[in-house]
Specification:
Order of helices and strands: HHHHHHH
Distance between the termini: 68 Å
Number of domains: 1
CATH architecture: Alpha Horseshoe
Protein name: Sel1 repeat-containing protein
Helix content: over 70%
CATH class: Mainly Alpha
Structural class: mainly alpha
Largest sheet: none
InterPro entries: TPR-like_helical_dom_sf (IPR011990)
Radius of gyration: 21 Å
CATH superfamily: Tetratricopeptide repeat domain
Number of strands: 0
Number of helices: 7
CATH topology: Serine Threonine Protein Phosphatase 5, Tetratricopeptide repeat
Strand content: under 5%
């Protein structure tokens, strides 16, 4: 009787492992398809899905090359924002999450790169870029504090959100 129970349990465990491996293959194939859609077509939905999937793993900065493609090749505001997020992740060894104030600790090169993409995203009316820049200017994180620019960005945000209502 113990041998039969052992065989059944072993069989069930092996069956579950095969199903998990199948799920992993499907996820890899899905990721490959999302990446292809981004590179070849600049598909915003695929980019959002990829960002969400990558954002849940330990290598969140992997979104950076795809964000650069979206921002540069397809002029995507969210691509610009994800460049900033990728830089936050790369410069965040303690994994504090989306903490904009960490920009003040970036190297000068990374800070200028991040600000350039946030500025580009803000011009493309991406509210995430607008809000991040507003906080950076309002608090003087890595840049000279500038309430005038922060107020202008806050008004831009209000204008965009009012239009969406």
């Amino acid at each position: 009787m113990k041998k039969i129970a052992f065989i059944i349990i072993t069989f069930l465990l092996l069956s579950c492992q095969k199903k998990e491996n199948t799920k992993l293959v499907v996820k890899k194939e899905e990721l490959i398809e999302l990446k292809r859609e981004i590179i070849e077509k600049g598909n915003e939905d695929s980019f959002t899905k990829l960002a969400l999937r990558i954002g849940n793993n330990s290598h969140k900065y992997e979104i950076l090359p795809y964000a650069l493609i979206m921002a540069n090749k397809y002029n995507s505001g969210e691509g610009c924002h994800q460049v900033f997020v990728g830089l936050l992740d790369m410069n965040n060894p303690n994994n504090y999450g989306y903490k904009i104030s960490l920009i003040k600790d970036f190297s000068e090169t990374d800070r200028q790169f991040a600000i350039a993409y946030l500025e580009k995203g803000a011009k493309l009316k991406n509210i995430n870029c607008i809000l991040a820049l507003e906080e950076i200017y309002r608090n003087g994180w890595g840049l000279e504090k500038n309430d005038t620019k922060a107020d202008r960005l806050q008004e831009e945000f209000k204008s965009i959100t009012e239009r969406k209502k």
